[in-house]
UniProtKB/TrEMBL annotation:
Alphabetical list of CDD domains matching this protein: dndB
Name of the protein in question: DNA sulfur modification protein DndB
InterPro entries (UniProt xref): DGQHR-contain_dom, DNA_S_mod_DndB
Pfam family, any one: DndB
Source organism of the structure: Microbispora triticiradicis
Superkingdom per UniProt: Bacteria
Length: 372
């Protein structure tokens, strides 16, 4: 923020932005393109010591910054950042290139250097840009869109923050996987969903939840997390090897779960299988992925893990099986959180005669104590 002394030294000087003028809610606003190197210099953020009621923004979550900065640095040719929104506490003067017609909306926006710029939306992007510039100064010549509003006071700025975030909805994880071409695991999950005889035509590609009448057995996000768990920490020389291992593993699992095949042969509906059994739900897939990961890591020869899966054919996957209560099912509903996934994996490990790891043993002991 500009101090009084700073305001005195900048009197008579101004920023000049090429801009387009618009109107929202009977208020003028301006859209410009700012060089990235200018963003940390004019958009200051120092509200951490203020109480929430006198701030116009949430406190900066510094834990988010490294990932955002890495996103820019690691993808210099195809990163995408949406516009920043800022309020300007100072007089803004717009000079159009024409007095009438379309030229009235295009021109230059003049803002005194003594003015204060308050970010209403995008303070984490601003911090990430600053961090990225420190590692790669060449990014400074690139630009980001900025929407300027006149600062009408704290209440208005707080309302703008509330309005800008009121209807923000995080997209479903499945569609995020569907559209993510950087993540190799996402590419693999899509490949399985579209090409594997087990999953083809039975994976919901957009939503991360399935309606009661859906004809799909799995969601893409569930397949993504399960396959990621399967391959974690396994050294593979190429993506094709990961795809081959994943296909082999899920094919082996399919042979031990007859209901999946019944759905493909149209002898059972996907809705009936999901309603009656646990094995098509995300928690079961994730647990099977983690189980497979351990088996593959323990195997000394290719596919030597496959025979060890045989006991899974005797597991009662019915949701009515009381063994699942408190593990994958709580109060009659399938619940997937970290502890429930671990407890479900524990159950499968025990059926295969496998030892539990330290964390798994602790969670299992807590579960057993709760049943007494």
């Amino acid at each position: 923020m500009s101090s009084p002394s700073a305001s005195g030294t900048t009197a008579g000087f101004e920023y000049v932005f090429p801009a387009i003028r618009g109107v929202q809610a009977q208020r003028e606003f301006y859209v410009s393109m700012c060089p990235l190197r200018l963003i940390p210099k004019i958009f200051l953020f120092d509200e951490e010591e203020l109480a929430p009621e006198v701030r116009a923004q949430r406190v900066l979550n510094k834990g988010r910054i490294p990932a955002l900065a890495s996103y820019i640095i690691d993808n210099p040719t195809d990163y995408v950042f949406s516009a920043l929104t800022a309020s300007v506490d100072g007089e803004m003067r717009f000079a159009g290139i024409a007095d009438e017609g379309p030229g009235m909306r295009i021109g230059q926006l003049h803002i005194p250097m003594a003015a204060r710029f308050l970010i209403n939306d995008g303070q984490h992007r601003r911090a990430a840009i600053e961090a990225a510039l420190s590692e790669n100064p060449e990014l400074g010549d690139e630009t980001i869109a900025v929407v300027f509003f006149h600062d009408a006071g704290l209440a208005r700025s707080q309302q703008m923050f509330a309005d800008l975030n009121r209807h923000a909805v995080r997209p479903a994880r499945s569609i995020g996987v569907l559209y993510d071409h950087r993540d190799e695991r996402a590419n693999l999950a899509r490949l399985l969903a579209l090409k594997s005889p087990i999953f083809r035509n039975f994976v919901e590609m957009e939503s991360s939840t399935l309606s009661a009448r859906s004809r799909k057995l799995f969601t893409l996000s569930a397949l993504y997390y399960a396959t990621d768990a399967l391959l974690r920490g396994i050294e593979l020389k190429a993506v094709s090897e990961a795809a081959e291992l994943a296909d082999q593993y899920w094919t082996a699992i399919d042979s031990l779960i007859p209901e999946w095949g019944l759905v493909r042969r149209r002898k059972m509906t996907a809705a009936d299988v999901r309603r009656q059994y646990l094995h098509s739900h995300g928690i079961a897939l994730h647990a099977l992925g983690r189980l497979g990961n351990t088996l593959v890591l323990q195997s000394t020869e290719s596919k030597s893990w496959k025979p060890r899966l045989e006991p899974l054919s005797k597991i009662d996957w019915a949701r009515s099986n009381l063994d699942w209560e408190g593990r994958a099912i709580v109060g009659g509903r399938v619940v997937k959180n970290h502890s429930n996934v671990v407890l479900t994996v524990n159950y499968l490990r025990q059926k295969l005669g496998m030892e539990l790891g330290p964390e798994e043993a602790d969670i299992e002991a807590t579960h057993v104590r709760g049943e007494r």
